[in-house]
Amino acid sequence: METNQNQYTASDYKNKQSVRWCPGCGDHAILNVLHKAMAELQIPPEQTVVVSGIGCSSRLPYYMNTYGMHTIHGRAAAIATGVKTANPDLTVWQISGDGDGLAIGGNHFIHAVRRNIDLNMLLFNNKIYGLTKGQYSPTTDRGTVTKSSPYGTTEDPFIPAELCFGARGTFFARSFDVSLDTTKEVMVAAARHKGASVVEILQNCMIFNNGVYAWFTDREERLNRTVHLRHGEKMLFGKDLDHGLVQDGFGLKAVKLGEDGYTIDDVLVHDAHCESNFLHQQLAMMDGKTLPLAIGVIRDVEALSYETEVARQVEDVKAKKGFSSLRDMILKTTETWEVK
Question: pTM for this structure?
Fold first, then answer.
């Protein structure tokens, strides 16, 4: 990923299109933070591609002064894969909602993660289909009343982190739409990670699922109900950072320092680079009720990336076979025939 000596600002990544999301939609904040994250990364706009599927979140490429592709429902990961594989030097961002990314696009999502393609995958999770007016999505909580479940849903939701880890993902992070600094932090980390980066952004839909994350985003209680994980730092939370996460058998436990004999020495230190995802998955599955919801970079490990390996393989074969082009390959092979 090359950087440019020019000092790009957030405005260099914006275009002049009028942003058309509902007033109060969390997508406004995410878009603004993405512009700022790109400015921090200093990747030239002409080396950046933003690919989306279908849904409210998928309007985002219209508001970028970069290359962009508004594709078809559920296929953003497939098309982003093609872009990155064809031109590995490009920085590729994929924008999907929970429906677009995990329902019709669920298969593409898990295989992009499994292949470890160097994509920055932003998953806007509002637990509802907003564009099509309020049907329940793959992440909607059991029992939720929606347009398509008037008596409440009768199924359990996907948890995006669980899918990511199940596909042997190498990077997973989480933030809120209203937590601007954290969202920027995880976007920048995702772009600097070599491989498939999954960033779940908990986003509020004012019209069809307003307040779905109020339990975590409430200003008075946010610090008590979330733990901001940073590599190499203690897993502390609470307004006064007087609570922490400790090991409890094979699980985790939230404790208050000074009570029941627990001290700062008992609190776990976050290791985002640990190859085993056992603890990472436990952290990502915390629900914010019995244990605080984890935000920040939860997992960030190195592994071979798909597009790099494809490019290497192509060069190896060309060197061994003596091919420099497709035409050269056809002319040099003995298995040819002429159609008359």
Answer: 0.93
